[in-house]
Please model this.
Amino acid sequence: MTKVIIIRGNSGSGKSSLAKELQNRIGFQTLLISQDTIRREMLYDKPDNKTVELIDYLIRYGLENCDYMIIEGILKEHRYGDMLRKHFAGKKNVFTYYYDISFEETLRRHKNKKNAEFGKEEMSNWFVAHDYLGLENEKIIKEHISLNDMVEKVLEDINFKE
Model:
């Protein structure tokens, strides 16, 4: 049975860093589904592109073919919530995390990135506070938790042994 890790939060919160580090640590048979990669690189970033549909398809693939699946992105509840709940509500081996941190902290973290590509105005337009999915055992990540501590927490939650 596939173990699913869902990592959500606002732009600049640390989702992608956590997801990539988890994929590196878990290794073989780990599918990483990154909303930004799909939305901006695989599909041209424009209104009404088919990001939700492609993520839905990739989730089905991952559930059938992978030991671990990491799904990460802003994944706003109003747009992605129904699709994610369809796959994962009431299911075992689903570990959901939401970075619930302040706008100021997301802005600070984004400015510290090597490729800080967005400004305060864009990030403000995208920011949604407390955008929970409501899945069972959804865990809230606050801004004081380090990346390394979060990686270890997730690996412990999924009972991963290196």
